[in-house]
Structure formats: structure tokens, C-alpha cells
Specification:
With 65 residues, the protein is an all-alpha fold. 72% of the residues lie in helices and 0% in strands.
Length: 65
């Protein structure tokens, strides 16, 4: 449960923005989307490895400049 302390006279839009930020940080929507369909562990591992390779190549390219 997300608790949002709101100061008296605080703008509603600002409070809503704070709530959305807190809600996104909890990762609830991300987890719900990932649970929508099952992915095999081998596929998740493969995706993580490909992402790590991509990030490593980006870092190497940054060092060259």
C-alpha cells in the first residue's frame, strides 16, 4: 500500500505526479506485464546475456572516442 503524505494546500496535480512516481518505483505494473505470459528461464538468460553484450559494446565504443 502506497502512503502519500500531502501537505495542506498542495496542488492536486503535484500530488498525483508524486503518486505516479512512487507507484512506478514499486514495479507493480512491470511485474504484472511480465506475468501475463510465461517465458522459459533459458530465454530470459539469453536476453540478459545479449543485453550485457550490447552494453559492453557501447562502453567500449565510448572509450574509443
Amino acid at each position: 500500500m502506497i502512503i502519500m503524505p500531502i501537505k495542506e494546500g498542495e496542488n492536486i496535480e503535484r500530488a498525483l505526479k508524486k503518486f505516479k512516481r512512487k507507484f512506478e518505483k514499486t514495479g507493480v505494473m512491470k511485474e504484472l506485464r511480465s506475468r501475463r505470459e510465461f517465458t522459459k528461464p533459458s530465454i530470459t538468460n539469453r536476453v540478459q546475456k545479449l543485453k550485457a553484450i550490447y552494453v559492453k559494446q557501447l562502453q567500449l565504443n565510448q572509450e574509443d572516442f
